[in-house]
């Protein structure tokens, strides 16, 4: 019986190269052109940026510290739980402080912070962040309860925490939002995009979201920077809470920096594929049907469906 | 020539801390409140859960055992293929048995299984699972053939197996569904969410899916727990086979546990963005157009498009 | 105080096995049946395929070589930048050459390439690919600028490069497209699916895309193989540039290999959820509204919305 | 300019194999013969052994818990030290308990321990081991002090702990000796051999060693199972405290299990290459010169050198 | 309460660099000088060498295939043992074949082997190596038995296999010696040095060693290239079987390539620190005492000690 | 057919714990006692030490930069060699600078260096170290040549560089000695101990060693801090160049800090096991035989053996 093996290759290697010197030179020139176009002088060229890899580890460690029995290591028990929580927090907060310093140094170009300012601010930010963690755990407990109550397929709160991408997304968001409010938009955005990549749920870290929030399935959900969401709100996959893009400024450029995303009041449900655009308000307790396209406010208790919209059209 | 280096930091470190003791205490209190609200006493606090990381490795190893030449290690050949398959199965099935025991112990709270019951059940479950693998390989061969026939961009069956997220999703689903039917909803759901995270395709492990199934592109597809799908069915991205959510029980809570997702008969095609809701039936050979919103049964051979729906509306 | 520990298990192990011999035999039979159905004889059974893991590392290394200060290692500075770029290119291009050889050997079944042909072609392909990299960097600089100008939430070009999934997707696409055009559809497709898995954005490597391209949010975007996109085009999440699938050939099979996806001219904006199908042309400067379903060409400067479409329907 | 590349190998692979089936069969037969010669029936064939890799991690974790500021992670400080120590102990002791169970199960063949006995014993052993750790730290502090005082090249106690192989060896020994005395000779021996491999110092875990022990350089030191060493003893490289091997039993086999290694009293120094054999006693405060070969007891305060030995020979 | 944190470093980085360009140039010049002095032209500059890391993995995998229940993965049992052995061999032998090719290509400079020769030889070498493995297992079984019988501290054959560095060294040697005899001195030497680094036992791969060989403790043992050792020989730490170095050639250079190390006949014991030099013969059943310095042959049954030597000196 | 599986463990876990709180408290007390005994106040408790793991990577990277074709990555060739060297140096020197700062901060307790001093000194030290690397390469080339000429078993200079522990030891020493002379005894010692652990060769970083140095076999060699070794010196295993330990100061403590190790002049050979003690001089071209014990100077051209020593004894 004979078989085939992987080929070993010839003993006489062939002759060629990738012309590295010329490629390296051309890339050098391309970088130089870009930096000149951006007004970036050489004194900028050594700054480091916050690291996605580092922030991924930091969030995973904080998540384990928040839910040690579910997301922590196996074997944990009552007598060792607090040791684990304390050690995980020490590691994660030290690492977070490094990322905070990197962002503050980065923005120091613009705001002129001194080294002493950066150090003092970073300490204050991480201390406040740490102090806010217990409240975040309670908010997330409410989110988990909402998921368990809102999905007929959910069998236990543990399944919800371990499996549901919507819970993973809101966990990242609640941490990212704390950092966004502390003046760290870049660190916050990186955390949000980690969750986006893992879940397909894109929540801008600026969005304000109340307790008991639940997103089912989740893929394709987009929630914009200035959205405001009340308590016990439930969303399904592919819901957009976006800006109304057709409106432009006088010079044709997009208007920046203003409230431009929806306000969703308490106890609202928005079904899959619905698109809600602009600084409109969805009144408390309303229900927005699947695939609905909504660009105007609706009063509390509204039941909006495609049919009702078409019926309402003249 | 001078360059800038990364700063080294001062020799005189600054003074501060994260107040770990108080944060740890407050998190301890938050956990205690949650456990009390859930009626969880201390005898529960050391149970372990099935592990997403372990299940990810198990599925990857089983996939390599099912398709050794495509998903196995480089260098495999006829004379070594069965050794690889046998060894991979031994490793994966042992590891799976551990996860099965973890879920059975977890659910032992509710169903009162003894240690002996758990051991006997786990052995029986894994033996049945192992015995079912050859049939799963044949089903997946049919799925791959369907993809190759259904996509004009596909160049070979190998490209389909190596590249298509739809194949990755159905591979996870077929394994998860076996475990779901064996009474392991948590393990099954974790496997389903692994595929969801990687592909954006969310198939509940309870869904029943026939041979020759193909999802193209796939991002945003949602298939519910009680869906029943026939043979040679083809879906495109963002298709939802969901429950009709507006119906509620008498006390306002959602009705649980009943057949509530569509039945899709053989040879149906459903195009991108279509939403099919409720326990309705899509008759054999029908074609459902893109973005269609469908909440009632259609007979075999139907050709449903947005236009036809609007024309049919009175 | 007493705690619970993880159970150790009994000293007397139980008796059972997984019946590996029979499962291995049945899987062997299933593989044999499949290979026979595919006409694959044993001389095919040892070929290796391009590796997703290897290509993921190659693209990450090339991305770092293209943007050393942003995506390269920490600590880089002017005096070390070119060393890093040159070394990264050497490593990545050598590794890419191995993957190119694997694909050329794989397709040698069909095109009859000799070993010498494969070697010569692979060298030529990688040399051309390397020489094209500086231009790709300039194209990507234009893409980043477009994102920064097009999103009111973007705070800096650095945030765009580090965070935006749309930039990650176009970076992968521009490299994949080079390889697609060099006659490596399988390698190109694997790179495209790496980006699809990370971002939810599915761009077929055959698509032609001009400079200054920006996709915001991105989840659910699908761009087909023969799409042609001009300069400064902007897309939002869940936009499909697809084929019009209802058209079939005479024998009922799908028609393959022809131009079947849209042409999008310069300066077009397509909002979230819009579906554009078939070989139609979106004229320069047009704006396609959210959720619009479009299967016919529109002239330059068109403003298409759901309302305008319904108004235009007879 | 032309360079050489790594060869790619031919497209036409050559034909051969390793005849795996026959090698596997012959190895199977060799194992069967061995097991028969050892009287090992199949009921033995699934037992697991303690793991060198696991024990290496356990010892490293315990070392960090014993010396958190020197051997623990960077960034530790007063406020986080106890959290780290507690968490590290929890992880290491749980892992140690698994290894203890493996050894007790292994020896259960001989001593007939039941599953309940094994569980109870393993818990008791690990609890006693944990309770003994603080005293081991104090012993090791004395060892470090002795090294710092005894070596003119030592600049600080920190250098001693971080660099000296003799300290690494005694740290492993003190932990291994606790386990040896608890009835775990296999686990203890594996730990001893980890240190032997790293340092070239071979201390049998049965050896009894007092406080303030220091080995300088260390390579080639051998200390036998029944050696007894007092306080403040100092050894140099290649010192052997061995059994006197020329004595044999009546049937020609080596006598086993009796005290057969030296007793070294307090404050003795033994210089490099000295060989001390048999159950002899080196009296308190003696000094044994380099390369000395000693097989009889010497009184307290002796100064033994090669010259003195030769002078003493008749 | 206040603590100290790791310093963050200043926002204003300092100015300096490592003058990389000049260091790189000077190193380039140093390499060029060396290559010129060695007569190495550019056609040599791309050859690869056998890899220590790869060979370490290969030997570890072969060891697990030889002793699957002791050195293989946990969980192995009768029904899965052969699958593991077969798969491990396939992986290890393929990897070994790559290393064999690298050495044959390296030596092709000298012996003028063609690419076809290299391929054919490498296949033949690995096939013979594979076929010899079962006999090596039987030899190693005899070695293990010898260790268990020869050391009063050994409690079981399993402890011997898992713990004794002498067994680790002879396992590496038996594999290395096969490869040395097959004409692969470089691969063989690398394997020998892996064992030397782990155990302190330095056995040249050319040494011929019979069954039932045991080295106790082992650190410092050196066995030369042309040594010949019979069956059931036992050595202790720091034994040298070396060449007699004082003899030199006429031109003052060392004589190369001739038999220059001892012949040790069956059933010899050599105690710690003994030095045996030159092409002498230690007769069957002799015993060489500790620290003995021996440069002339001794007849069978000799009992050599320091005392006996001194007595024999005139 | 039935097999045994690994036991799963009972569903009813047993009750116990490790009494972590009391162990943590007792360890806290032990640390407090130690720190008080050492006069270490809390302002010392957060300093970091140089890291053995980091230094191991740094030396490995520098070794690859010094010998890119032999110790660098596979695939390197003329056109990519300098890129690799430059990038490796940048990475290694940056990492070294961090370790240098850690040692300077550590010693700042004693020498009162300010933060600015530390920064300036560390930059200067690393610049000088970098500038000295090309000369170290040339020294190592001479060492390799000496090994190849001095060992009849050596087949090529490549085998020597890849395999010989003596070369690995001198490579570490030459780098460590540069750092020792730059005032970094702790970093230097850690590097020396890395080599000691890997090779069994213990060279204090303070030792001065000339070009063309070769240690064969090497295990057990010890070279003291103030040793001075000329050019073309060759040592064998277990040679000690130590201090004469029997001499003590008036108060009984060992005398520190003075020249106390041998001076070995050019072209000396010292055979295995020889012990040379005290500030004596071995004259140029001398040969010291195996196991010789030498504590007095010998003139150039001496041939010292055990026999010659005994003959010389009165």
UniProtKB/TrEMBL annotation, chains A, B, C, D, E, F:
It catalyses: L-serine + acetyl-CoA = O-acetyl-L-serine + CoA. The keyword Protein biosynthesis does not apply. The keyword Amino-acid biosynthesis applies. Its EC number is 2.3.1.30. Gene3D superfamilies: Hexapeptide repeat proteins, serine acetyltransferase, domain 1. This is serine O-acetyltransferase. It comes from the Bacteria. One of its GO terms (molecular function) is serine O-acetyltransferase activity. Keywords: Acyltransferase, Amino-acid biosynthesis, Transferase. CDD domains: LbH_SAT. One of its GO terms (biological process) is amino acid biosynthetic process. Belongs to the transferase hexapeptide repeat family. It is an enzyme of class 2 (transferase).
């Amino acid at each position: 019986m004979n078989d085939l093996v992987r080929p070993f290759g010839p003993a006489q290697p062939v002759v060629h190269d990738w012309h590295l010197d010329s490629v390296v030179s051309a890339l050098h020139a391309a970088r130089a052109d870009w930096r000149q176009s951006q007004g970036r002088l050489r004194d900028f060229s050594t700054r480091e940026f916050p690291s996605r890899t580092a922030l991924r580890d930091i969030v995973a460690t904080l998540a384990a510290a928040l839910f040690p029995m579910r997301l922590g290591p196996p074997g944990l028990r009552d007598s060792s739980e607090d040791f684990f929580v304390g050690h995980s927090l020490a590691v994660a907060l030290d690492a977070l402080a490094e990322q905070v310093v990197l962002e503050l140094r980065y923005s120091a170009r613009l705001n002129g912070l001194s080294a002493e300012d950066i150090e003092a601010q970073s300490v204050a930010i991480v201390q406040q962040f740490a102090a806010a963690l217990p409240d975040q755990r309670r908010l997330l407990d409410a989110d988990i309860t909402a998921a368990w109550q809102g999905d007929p397929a959910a069998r236990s709160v543990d399944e919800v925490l371990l499996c549901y991408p919507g819970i993973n997304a809101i966990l990242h968001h609640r941490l990212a939002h704390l950092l966004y409010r502390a003046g760290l938009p870049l660190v916050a955005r990186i955390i949000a995009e980690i969750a986006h990549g893992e879940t397909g749920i894109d929540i801008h870290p600026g969005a304000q979201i109340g307790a008991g929030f639940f997103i089912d399935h989740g893929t394709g959900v987009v929630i914009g920077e200035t959205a405001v969401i009340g308590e016990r709100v439930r969303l399904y996959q592919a819901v957009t809470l976006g800006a109304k893009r057709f409106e432009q400024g006088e010079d044709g450029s997009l208007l920046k920096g203003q409230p431009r995303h929806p306000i969703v009041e308490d106890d609202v449900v928005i079904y899959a594929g619905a698109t809600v655009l602009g600084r409109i308000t969805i009144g408390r307790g309303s229900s927005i049907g699947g695939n609905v396209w909504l660009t105007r406010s609706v009063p509390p208790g509204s039941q909006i469906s495609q049919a009702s919209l078409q019926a309402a059209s003249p």
